[in-house]
Amino acid sequence: MRLDADIALAQRLADAAGAVILPYFRSPMTTERKGDATPVTLADRGAEEAMRAILAAERPADGIIGEEFGAERSGASRQWVLDPIDGTAGFLAGRPIFGTLIALLVDGWPVLGIIDQPVLKERWLGVTGQATTLNDRPALCRPCKALNEATLATTGPHYFNEHDGGHFMALAARTDHRRMVMGGDCYNYAMLASGQVDIVCEAELKLHDWAALVPVIEGAGGTMSDWNGDPLHAASTGHVLALGDPARLEDVVEALACHH
Fold it and tell me: What pLDDT, on a 0 to 100 scale, did the predictor assign at position 36?
């Protein structure tokens, strides 16, 4: 599957989104809450509109699934999945660990993904069958010899319901919990792809939250799955695991299942 033209297009989508988002970051309005006129909303919508305009011109037959404006041509075998700002709370708090997520799905499976951090000018690109890059240089997950040495990351405890939270804490108890990381949204997965953390565990993610992450993690030598260890596809429930070292998958799935 030759994706060169799609890769170039995805890079341009990320450029266009970043150009819209950057002027809103840490802007004086950011602390105001004016219903739907918050900067994050303006940045989100403007960035997705910019990406959709490019896709409409260059890939009119492809489907689009976007966080802000929903689905178009949902029957198409090729679907672009867009999340203009993943990490809204971080963006509003002035933390440069949000990201623009762009994925291409073919028949429901992610084959291309970008995590773009426009403030730090960091861009991870993952493509099926290719090595993941960060700004055109190789990105690699790190090995993890044992679960009790693993650094675990998640966006926050408030994203788990009570049932899922119990399972997450059962996993956390078996990792190196002194080094556990909270907050970060998509940036945690980028850090996993660059060998800085070992496990990311989250629940109730939407397709636009995780589709771009899969090719990035897998191309860096890691693995992504649901909490049962099964591969992620368009119909997955949103219980997401990312591991830098696939050898630990069985340990993680076992730890998650042990909550009663």
Answer: 56
* Sign of the alpha-carbon dihedral angle for 237, 126, 100, 81: negative
Angle at 173 between CA 168 and CA 179, to 5 degrees: 95
Hey, what CATH topology would domain 147-257 get?
D-Maltodextrin-Binding Protein; domain 2 (3.40.190)
Q: What is the mean pLDDT of the chain?
A: 93
Handedness of CA 6, 12, 15, 21 (dihedral sign): negative
Contacts of 5 (CB under 8 A, 6+ apart): none
Q: Which residues pair with 100 in a beta bridge?
A: 116
> What's the CATH architecture for 4-138?
2-Layer Sandwich (3.30)
Beta carbons of 183 and 155 less than 8 angstroms apart: yes
Mean pLDDT, residues 70-91 taken together: 95
The first and second tokens of residue 217, run together, are 């993690």
Cα(first)–Cα(last) distance of the chain, in Å?
A: 45
> Mean pLDDT over residues 150-160, rounded?
93
Closest CA to 15 of 65, 50, 57, 59: 50
